[in-house]
Write a structure and sequence with these properties.
A hairpin with a 5-residue loop joins β2 and β3. It is built from eight helices and nine strands. The chain has helices at residues 2-27, 35-50, 102-111, 118-121, 162-176, 194-201, 203-206, 231-235, and strands at residues 54-60, 72-79, 85-91, 99-100, 124-132, 147-156, 182-190, 218-224, 238-240.
Length: 242
C-alpha cells in the first residue's frame, strides 16, 4: 500500500511540474512579428522617445525556453547625428515593454571631452561609459556630483610597451580628476579584430564576458578600480596573457 501511495504521489508531483512548466511558457508573451518587424518596433520606440533618428546596427533575440523569464531581447542602435551607440531592451516575458541606456550613453559622449585619448586612440579605440545618479533627458547632468560610475574601455591593437603605458597613464590621470563615486579603467591589448572593437563600443552587451572569452589574440590586460595611483602602481596592474 505504501508503495502504491508513493507511486501516486510521484505521478501527481510530475503532473504538477509539467503543468507548472506549461503555465510558465504561456506566461511568456510570444510576439507575432518577424525579427525584422520587431526590430522596427524597438527602433520606433527609441526614435519617438528622444525625437531623434537612429539606425539599427545589430539585434540579439534569444530563443524561448524554460529560462525565458531571464532572457532579454536587445537591439543595438546608433544615433545618426552623433554616432552614439545605445541598446534597446525588452524581456522575453514582456516583449513590448521597452527600456534603453541612451541617456547614460549620451552622458559618456558629453563627458569624453574631459579626457584626452588622442594619444591612445591611434593604437585602437576607447569609449567612456557613464552611470548617472539621476537621469533627466531634458537636462543631462554630468557634474561630478551626479556621476555614479565611470568606466573607460580601451582596446590597444599592440602589445604593451613603455610608450603606450605612459600614454595610458596620462589618460588615467585625466580620468582620476573626475570625482565620480566609482572609477574603472579597463584595457585590452589585443590583435586587431572586429569583436574587440565591438567589446569597446558596446560594453553593455559584450562586456558580460572578459577579453579572453572571445576569439582573438589577447596579449595583456590592465584593469584599474581606484584613482590616484603612481605610475609604478599603475603598470603593476598590467597582466600578460601569453
Amino acid at each position: 500500500m505504501n508503495i502504491i501511495k508513493k507511486s501516486i504521489c510521484i505521478i501527481l508531483i510530475t503532473l504538477m511540474a509539467i503543468g507548472a512548466c506549461g503555465c510558465m511558457k504561456t506566461n511568456v508573451l510570444n510576439r507575432k512579428e518577424s525579427d525584422a518587424d520587431y526590430s522596427e518596433l524597438m527602433l520606433n520606440y527609441i526614435s519617438n522617445k528622444y525625437d531623434k533618428k537612429f539606425s539599427i546596427i545589430e539585434a540579439f533575440f534569444p530563443n524561448e525556453g524554460l529560462d525565458s523569464t531571464m532572457k532579454v531581447n536587445t537591439l543595438v542602435v546608433q544615433e545618426n547625428e552623433t554616432g552614439i551607440i545605445a541598446n534597446v531592451y525588452a524581456a522575453l516575458a514582456n516583449p513590448y515593454e521597452y527600456s534603453d541606456n541612451y541617456i547614460d550613453s549620451r552622458a559618456g559622449y558629453l563627458l569624453k571631452n574631459r579626457i584626452n585619448t588622442l594619444g591612445i586612440d591611434k593604437y585602437g579605440k576607447s569609449k567612456l561609459y557613464v552611470s548617472l545618479v539621476e537621469e533627466d533627458y531634458e537636462n543631462i547632468d554630468i557634474s561630478d556630483e551626479n556621476l555614479n560610475k565611470l568606466t573607460l574601455l580601451v582596446n590597444i591593437n599592440k602589445k604593451p610597451t613603455d610608450d603606450i603605458l605612459k600614454e595610458l597613464f596620462c589618460v588615467y590621470e585625466d580620468l582620476s580628476q573626475i570625482d565620480s563615486k566609482y572609477t574603472f579603467m579597463i584595457v585590452g591589448f589585443t590583435e586587431e579584430s572586429e569583436i574587440f572593437t565591438k567589446y569597446v563600443t558596446n560594453y553593455a552587451h559584450y562586456g558580460k564576458k572578459g577579453w579572453k572569452d572571445y576569439s582573438g589574440k589577447v596579449y595583456a590586460t590592465l584593469e584599474i578600480s581606484e584613482r590616484g595611483l603612481s605610475y609604478s602602481d599603475f603598470i603593476n596592474n598590467c597582466k600578460k596573457c601569453e
